[in-house]
Design brief:
Two copies of one chain form a homodimer. Chain A has nine helices and twelve strands. In chain A, the strands form two sheets. A seven-stranded parallel sheet of chain A has the order 8-7-6-11-9-12-10. In chain A, α5 packs parallel to α9. Chain A folds into two domains: 94 residues, 60s Ribosomal Protein L30, Chain: A (2-Layer Sandwich); 143 residues, SPOUT methyltransferase, trefoil knot domain (Alpha/beta knot, 3-Layer(aba) Sandwich), CATH 3.40.1280. In chain A, α6 links the parallel β7 and β8. The first copy, chain A, has 254 residues and is of the alpha/beta class. Chain A starts with a strand and ends with a helix. At the A-B interface, α5 and α9 of A face α5 and α9 of B.
Chain lengths: 254, 254
């Protein structure tokens, strides 16, 4: 166990840089905060490089079997590294998992995320896709960064539970259709009520940007545009909530 | 139209205080930001007291028929009043709507919010309850403030669409049961799969705190505890997403 006391220590400065997307992409690493996420990372076999704990933080014995370097820091340094208001005493530098080559298969179930901009929404959507038992998530251009601290925390560990791949969604869409997987775009108008969607084993659902929804180019190529019925006076639902309602509705069609 | 230029103007100082719950409760007013919320407020007959716009903001003609006092301020003052990163050029001081006396009725559909702490979650939950066409929302103790700026913005206007009442949830629960409205608590364990809940016209659904869920005292008194099946490896769903899935599932039982 190594101890760092100075805020100007080079490692501290380096790890803090991981708050930026640029540095995460340059190094292929990202930060994990809190014992729950670190537990999930270890359980899934993710590679932790450094684990930084506050003085008096109690490490679990199983964690110490892992290969990372362990560092202890005072509370003031934990505050510098943390992106939350109440740091939980442990932060890790984790290697980004390798993107799987091909995750599409017959009768598979997928979510396409087309330009969701809020990291909290993206993380919650991934957590929801995990709950619904999907086989993978595709992130299209203009979508929030998967390794943004807020995204990672909002997944509550689901980032380690299912394949998540950056991909051109137009390509992913035609790949699905070659496998006879129907692709459903969410839409507010000119769409089929989700309850009327025919039975299907596999599917791909496309959810879109908070303001503008799924881009027309994808809607036009989709097998069907689907919508959630609105029974009250709201104009639309939050994109994470809509994803949950639609995925559990499609789950029923199997 | 009155013009304010100085940051030390007494009205500016007073309105900025509405960022705090204490001042909102003392004055019975709260802030609304952005044209969409102001449109919704006017459409629902809410009483706007002051409307503050940035120079060059284009007011809609219909809005000018309302009774508020209109103020113009420079961008630097709008920034002081705003609670968002990108102010949208218009903020209003709005009177809190009077709480309706009694909203429970036979076969009605209600949501109880038991200690949801994040204002963004609370606002999203209210927007979802509106979409699902509920007859009202009860906010229990320990729940985020309905008039917090983040809550209000997350409702996307639904705060003006359905009755929302602060109430002791134990009392609300027994009131429902006297009307033969079944009350369902969400629960992660020892609960009936939502798909197995019997047909029902009316219902009350209780959703709980992000960390600890619905308090045991309410679960024990409920007609039934219900859960969302998890098909993947996630431990639970975000509370707003869970609310959406459950409300749309219960909608099907009618």
């Amino acid at each position: 166990m190594k101890y760092i006391e100075s805020e100007s220590n080079a490692s501290i400065k380096q790890w803090k840089k991981l708050h930026t997307k640029k540095e995460r992409e340059k190094t292929g690493t990202f930060l994990l905060e809190g014992p729950h996420l670190i537990e999930e990372a270890i359980a899934s076999g993710a590679a932790l490089v450094h684990v930084i704990v506050e003085e008096n933080f109690e490490m679990k014995d199983e964690w110490l079997k892992e290969k990372f370097t362990l560092w202890t820091v005072p509370a003031k340094i934990m505050k510098i590294l943390s992106e939350t208001e109440k740091p939980q005493g442990i932060i890790a530098v984790c290697e980004m998992p390798a993107e799987p080559e091909e995750i599409l298969k017959e009768n598979g179930r997928y979510l396409f995320v087309d330009g969701v901009q809020d990291p909290g929404n993206l993380g919650t959507i991934i957590r929801t896709a995990d709950s619904a038992g999907l086989d993978g998530v595709f992130l299209g251009e203009g979508t929030a960064d998967l390794f943004n601290g807020k995204t990672v925390r909002s997944t509550q560990g689901s980032i380690f539970h299912l394949p998540i791949v950056k991909k051109d969604l137009q390509k992913a869409l035609s790949d699905c259709q070659s496998l006879n997987i129907p692709v459903y775009s969410t839409s507010l108008s000119d769409a089929v009520d989700m309850r009327e969607v025919p039975e299907t084993k596999g599917f791909a659902l496309i959810v879109g940007n908070e303001g503008s929804g799924v881009q027309p180019a994808l809607q036009n190529e989709s097998t069907m545009n689907v919508k959630i019925p609105i029974f009250g006076k709201a104009e639309s639902l939050n994109v994470s909530v809509a994803t949950g309602i639609l995925l559990y509705e499609l789950q029923r069609k199997r």
